[in-house]
Specification:
Elements: H1 4-7, E1 12-22, E2 26-28, H2 30-34, H3 37-47, H4 61-66, H5 74-79, E3 87-90, E4 97-99, E5 104-112, H6 116-132, E6 141-149, E7 155-160, E8 173-174, H7 175-182, E9 189-197, E10 200-201, E11 204-205, H8 211-230, H9 238-245, E12 249-253, E13 256-264, E14 269-282, H10 287-297, E15 312-316
Antiparallel strand pairs: 1-5, 1-6, 1-8, 2-4, 3-5, 6-7, 9-14, 9-15, 10-11, 12-14, 13-14
Helix pairs in contact: 3-6, 8-10
């Protein structure tokens, strides 16, 4: 098997922060941010009209950003789930609240694929979204600045509103370099789910979950994202990885279901939500497991992952536990 870290040199991504300056007042809640799927797709169809057919595949900017093609190889199609957008939002719940005209909201995102044109298209979609607003023709905004994180984990401004989008020079990074420079601690760690993770098994959501149930979701999400957006089919022994997971000891698991919105129909409303909370590990985790956990933290898990749901951080264990 080719070394995992060597393979991940082909897994390129950018991490960006986008400043949105509101032209009208809005009360931004987590539910607003997690429900941007329809509005973003509508904005993308306006600025990146979908193109169908193999002869125009290279021109299909909408598909490249939001709907990657299914694998042609039947074996790969079996192994990799249908993948979502190339971008993943990382919402900071502490930044929600009341915004007045002129206030700035910063949206953080990771864009996978190592192609600056995809990032430029993502910026164009945000510009188009600003004309309609974050919520039902409310909260209109202007994209005023974009920052990118370089390989040294320093942020630099790469674009401002007075410049054409195509001039943005986005710092590309590869996952191998990032993991080697960042993934130092292997013990006393915790996973902290800070936005609801809606994980479905046989079309039913998990209302409780342990780490052995969660890791397969991480594995599928990471391998599918890398295959669809980085054209990287990882050479890994999945059965061996899953057997390693059986040996992982969890000290504390306080994941619990949290409702964050209601889906209303003609006669009733159904609460929708997901798992939030922390998992604390006992002892060390293997490097292979950590690689997928760290990659997954830049991709989110479950339904609506691209739009900010199922976000988690990897942190040192809280000292008071």
């Amino acid at each position: 098997m080719k070394g995992l870290m060597e393979q991940l040199k082909k897994a390129e991504f950018v991490k960006i922060e986008c400043d949105l300056r509101f032209s009208e007042a809005i009360d931004v809640e987590l539910a607003n941010l997690l429900c941007l799927r329809r509005a973003i797709r509508s904005a993308a169809k306006y600025v990146l009209p979908p193109v169908r057919g193999e002869e125009t595949a290279a021109l299909n900017r909408f598909g490249r950003l939001l709907e990657p093609d299914l694998a042609v190889d039947p074996v790969a199609r079996h192994h990799h789930q249908k993948c979502g957008p190339a971008f993943v939002f990382h919402h900071d719940v502490s930044c929600t609240g009341k915004f007045c005209r002129g206030d700035v909201l910063t949206l953080s995102a990771t864009v996978w694929g190592g192609n600056s044109e995809i990032v430029h298209d993502f910026m164009r979609v945000l510009q188009a979204l600003g004309k309609t607003g974050l919520r039902h023709d409310a909260g209109r905004f202007e994209l005023v600045a974009v920052r990118g994180e370089d390989s040294a984990q320093n942020w630099q401004q790469v674009w401002q509103a007075s410049a054409p989008v195509s001039s943005a020079m986005i710092p590309m990074r590869d996952a191998s370099w990032w993991l080697n420079s960042y993934m130092l601690e292997r013990s006393v760690l915790e996973l902290k789910f800070h936005t609801p993770a809606r994980l479905l098994v046989k079309k039913r959501p998990l209302f409780k979950a342990d780490f052995k149930q969660i890791f397969p979701f991480v594995l599928r999400r990471v391998t599918s994202m890398l295959y669809s957006h980085c054209y990287l089919d990882l050479d890994i022994d999945i059965h061996e990885l899953l057997s390693v997971i059986e040996q992982v000891e969890v000290e504390i698991n306080n994941l619990a279901w949290h409702d964050w919105r209601e889906l209303c129909g003609d006669n009733s409303c159904q609460p929708l939500g997901g798992l939030m909370g922390t998992i604390n590990f006992k002892g060390e985790l293997s490097q292979e497991v950590l690689v997928f956990l760290y990659l997954g933290s830049y991709m989110n898990l479950g339904k609506n992952a691209a739009f900010g749901a199922g976000g988690y951080w990897i942190e040192p264990k809280s000292s008071d536990l």
